From TrEMBL, chain A:
The chain crosses the membrane at residues 6-24, 53-71, 77-95, 116-134, 146-167, 179-198, 251-273, 285-306, 378-407, 428-447, 453-478, 485-506, 518-541. This is Probable sodium:solute symporter, VC_2705 subfamily. Keywords: Cell membrane, Ion transport, Membrane, Sodium, Sodium transport, Symport, Transmembrane, Transmembrane helix, Transport. Pfam families: SSF. Gene3D superfamilies: Sodium/glucose cotransporter. Its main location: membrane. The keyword Nuclease does not apply.
Automatic annotation (TrEMBL), chain B:
The chain crosses the membrane at residues 20-42, 54-73. Keywords: Membrane, Transmembrane, Transmembrane helix. The keyword Transmembrane applies. InterPro entries: Na_symporter_ssu. It holds the Pfam family DUF4212. The keyword Transmembrane helix applies. It comes from Pseudidiomarina donghaiensis. Residues 9-86 form the Sodium symporter small subunit domain. This is DUF4212 domain-containing protein.
Length: 571, 88
């Protein structure tokens, strides 16, 4: 059976599984449909959080970016896991005790201000929207390859499926569906990694295989894999794999923006509102990180193996280039999507990949994970499985984000702020309209991306870091912080960060080089500066305008210990 | 007020903050310290085939993060019990 048919079957089977679980759990508990996680064990909730959290960026794009960036790719690994420590230690237990529905609710109530709530809503929409644009491109990459269409058509097909899945299906809130999605994506991520690790190093565990020596019969046998990578990189004029080329301050700033942004992402925070107890909020964050680590500790190994394999296949074991006529099928299959290009510049009929003028290949970073099993010549069912994993990752995250966007617009913005008199039916209609508009806009951005999936997504984190994180931290740990300070801080943080990103990515992309950057910090990392600005502005303005009222300070006191937390709120 | 006295409430919060700060110090040293700022120094050492700084950046820091959260969960549960503010 060919790969395309198998992919249809396996992706179809996983879809059937999600729908079956949705129907089954619905029949079992109609009343607590939206608080499914209220009665769910913290391990299960952690698994569902992991699925919600790990997006197409994590699944499809991250290992590919690491494969090309080497050490510099560590910013994603540390950034997207380290944030959970902040979340568990500084946010989750207190927000759970507070016990409201959304992040704008917390900001609005804690800062006793409708203006603060509105600004928080706008920030939530901006952040979720940026994030979902990255997802659309991810889904598009999957579909373009397996339906053998170009990337634009792939994004469009993906958008239609996401629309039906989330807007009409309304499957969000069913924790068990996300548990299933986690299992599919983790399995799909690990299986090829284990195969390839065993092929290349004889190690079953990709994590140790990454540091091991190359097995007999593979090019470079006996050398350490990482030493081989560094050697190949030098020979081909690429940056050394284990050291990278980004400046230290930029690596620091990007890592920080991603970590802090993780802790400030509205669709992640919301998950901790739904667990039964405050202590479960702490534990859930721990289990979520365990399940995330399963994928994140495998990603750098996949990256390393993929890079070596790519060079071996394109340049040949002797590094002389491989005849295009003799190129394996995956090269030609991916060429159809436009994500791999070969231009025979020296006219010798051979492909060659390098970091200098000899290069003839354009390889899109987003294809590495999907192409990896084909490159390593694994069985067709593994290739199909990876496609199913990519779809699971993109769907589970898109669903959560669209829910944030649509509730922000219909509930927080319209119902609670602009037009309090609309009926429930109108509110629901606006929620769907908002989701549809969000999908349409993000489809456009998915086709015309300013960067690769993981990079687009990185901007969302910068925006979250610069807006929500300081306001929430100050709201919990500095009880005298007042509304004027918090509002000023959020505004300065998000406007500064957004302006910086828009300037370098859209207005003047030609100027996007280290020399022009503020303190040498790239647009990906600028959220860190935005966050610091937010803290400073909030503090100074607070000092000029006086303390928060006593009843607010009492409210803050009461969220600082677990006793007396009510039941889980709806999600 | 769940606490028996104002002093106990203050002591609980102080202990809580001190625990969080200690854990965040480890969090910072392992990721930003070993993985970024000191990476070149640590890369002179080899660890199971990895350059040590590179290992911390791509595997070691993630493993440490997981351990940190579980230590926090355990220590906070003990703290909640000590001050009798755990959930019934």
């Amino acid at each position: 059976m060919d790969i395309q048919t198998l992919t249809f079957i396996i992706v179809g089977l996983t879809f059937a599984l999600y729908i079956a679980i949705a129907i089954w759990s619905r029949a079992g508990s109609t009343s607590d449909f939206y608080v499914a996680s209220g009665g769910v064990h913290p391990v299960m909730n952690g698994m569902a959080t992991a699925a919600d959290w790990m997006s197409a960026a994590s699944f499809i794009s991250m290992a590919g970016i690491i494969a090309f960036a080497g050490y510099d790719g560590s910013v994603y690994l540390m950034g997207w896991t380290g944030g959970y420590v902040l979340l568990a230690l500084c946010l989750a237990p207190y927000l759970r005790k507070f016990g409201k529905f959304t992040v704008p609710d917390f900001i609005g109530d804690r800062y006793y201000s409708q203006t603060a709530r509105t600004i928080a809503v706008i920030c939530a929409i901006l952040i979720s929207f940026t994030y979902i644009a990255g997802q659309m491109r991810g889904v598009g990459v999957v579909f373009s390859r397996f339906l053998e269409v170009d990337i634009a058509t792939g994004v469009f097909i993906g958008a239609v499926i996401v629309f039906f899945y989330t807007v009409l299906g309304g499957m969000k809130g069913i924790t068990y569906t996300q548990v299933a999605q986690y299992c599919v994506l983790a399995f799909a991520y690990l299986v090829p990694a284990i195969f390839i690790s065993f092929q290349m190093t004889g190690h079953i565990l990709p994590q140790t295989g990454f540091g091991a020596t190359i097995a007999d019969g593979v090019a470079g046998e006996g050398q350490y894999l990482l030493a081989r990578l560094d050697g190949l990189s030098e020979e081909l004029g690429l940056a050394a794999y284990t050291s990278g080329i980004k400046s230290k301050i930029d690596v620091f700033a990007i890592t920080c923006a991603l970590m802090v942004g993780t802790a400030g992402l509205p669709h992640v925070i919301v998950r901790f509102f739904t667990v039964p107890k405050v202590s479960d909020a702490r534990l859930s964050a721990g289990w979520a990180l365990v399940f995330i680590s399963v994928v994140y500790l495998t990603a750098p190994s996949i990256a390393g193996f993929a890079k070596v394999n790519l060079i071996n296949t394109v340049n040949g074991p002797d590094l002389q280039g491989v005849e295009y006529e003799a190129a394996p099928d995956w090269v030609k299959n991916w060429e159809k999507t436009g994500l791999i290009k070969w231009e025979d510049e020296n006219g010798d009929g051979k492909m060659f990949y390098s970091g200098d003028e000899r290069n003839e290949m354009t390889v899109d970073r987003d294809i590495m994970v999907l192409a990896n099993p084909e490159i390593a010549d694994l069985p067709a069912w593994v290739v199909a499985l990876v496609a199913a994993g990519g779809v699971a990752a993109a769907l589970s995250t898109s669903a959560g984000l669209l829910l944030v966007i649509s509730t922000s617009v219909s509930h927080d913005l319209l119902k609670r702020t602009l037009t309090p008199n609309i009926t429930d039916k109108q509110e629901l209609m606006w929620a769907r309209v908002a989701a549809a508009i969000a999908i349409a806009l993000s489809t456009w951005f998915g086709i015309n991306p300013p960067g690769f999936v993981a990079q687009v997504v990185a901007f969302a984190f910068g925006l979250a870091a610069a807006s929500f994180f300081p306001a929430i931290i100050l709201g919990i740990f500095y009880k005298r912080m007042n509304s004027t300070g918090a509002i000023a801080g959020m505004l300065v943080g998000i406007i500064f960060t957004l302006a910086y990103i828009i300037y370098f990515k859209f207005v003047n992309p030609a100027a996007n080089v280290a020399d022009n950057w503020l303190f040498g910090i790239s647009p990906e990392g600028i959220g860190t500066v935005g966050m610091v600005l937010n803290f400073i502005v909030a503090y100074v303005v607070h000092k000029l305008t006086g303390d928060a009222p006593q009843d607010t300070q009492d409210l803050v006191e009461s969220i600082r210990y677990p006793r007396g937390a009510g039941g889980a709120t709806g999600h | 007020m769940a606490f028996k006295s104002e002093e106990l409430a203050k002591a609980y919060w102080r202990d809580n903050i001190s625990l969080v700060l200690k854990l965040l110090a480890v969090w910072f040293i392992v990721s930003y310290g070993f993985g970024i700022l000191l990476v070149d120094v640590l890369n002179q050492f080899t660890f199971f085939g990895f350059k040590l700084g590179f290992w911390f950046a791509q595997q070691g820091s993630i493993i440490t993060f997981v351990i940190l959260i579980f230590v926090y969960v355990k220590r906070m549960a003990a703290l909640d019990n000590k001050y009798e503010v755990h959930e019934e």
